[in-house]
Amino acid sequence: MTELIIIRGGSGTGKTTLAAALRPHFPAGVTIESDHVRQMFNEFDWMCKQKYMCCLSALARLVRFYAAAQLRPIIVVDTFERRYMRLFRSRLPSGFEPVIISLYADEKSVRARMSARDGATLIEQALVNSINQGKERRLEGSRALALDTSDLTPAMVCSAALDFIGRSPKRRTVKD
């Protein structure tokens, strides 16, 4: 059984939507969204590396807590820029080999999704994150999927993720 699923990608790529769609398929699991951890800060500055590192540490501690409680799988949702992925993974329980699902989308899709949100002021940064993560083809770990969500419905994204989770541990890209 998959113990840990990491869903990463820029804003507007469908991370939260995918996590919500996966929940019914894993009733014995738990989902941790970094946005909820960030909301615990009285003031969170996206540009403050120290606060983001603190958030990642909290995420890793939550994974350890739920792992000790035998809840599986643990789904973690964050942008997880590549430079922070290694740090986060180093703080996980030993032996956890996560499935990593990287979501990205084209500029038109990200702009549309972000502009539909209330107070979506981070559109440009969301675009940069999605484009950068979409270019990443060599992800760390043996079980990594890069998925372009631009023209996919949430059900299609969920189906692709479930299909991948159940497949052999190979890297592949859907809809290049």
Overall residue-averaged pLDDT value: 82
Instruction: Summarize the main sheet.
Output: 6 strands, parallel
Uncertain regions spanning at least 5 consecutive residues = 168-176
Q: Considering DSSP H and I runs of 4 or more, what fraction of the residues is helical?
A: 40-55%
Whole-number tally of structural domains: 1
Quickly give the CATH architecture: 3-Layer(aba) Sandwich
Shape: globular
Strand percentage, roughly? 15-25%
- Broad CATH class: Alpha Beta
Q: How many DSSP E strands? A: 6
Radius of gyration: 15 Å
- Element pattern in H and E: EHEHHEHEHHEHE
CATH superfamily: P-loop containing nucleotide triphosphate hydrolases
CATH topology group? Rossmann fold
The CA-CA distance between the termini, in Å, is 28 Å
Structural class: alpha/beta
Number of helices: 7
Give, in spatial order, the strands making up the sheet with the most strands: 2-3-1-4-5-6
Q: Would you give an account of this structure?
A:
With about 180 residues, the chain is α/β, with parallel strands linked by helices. It has helices spanning about 15-20, 35-40, 50-70, 80-90, 105-115, 125-135, 155-165, and strands at about 5-10, 30-35, 75-80, 100-105, 145-150, 170-175. Strands 2-3-1-4-5-6 form a six-stranded parallel β-sheet, with helices on both faces. Helix 7 (about 155-165) links the parallel strand 5 and strand 6 (about 170-175). Helix 1 crosses helix 7 (about 155-165), helix 3 packs across helix 4 and helix 5 packs antiparallel against helix 6. The chain is globular, with a radius of gyration of 15 Å. The two termini are about 30 Å apart.
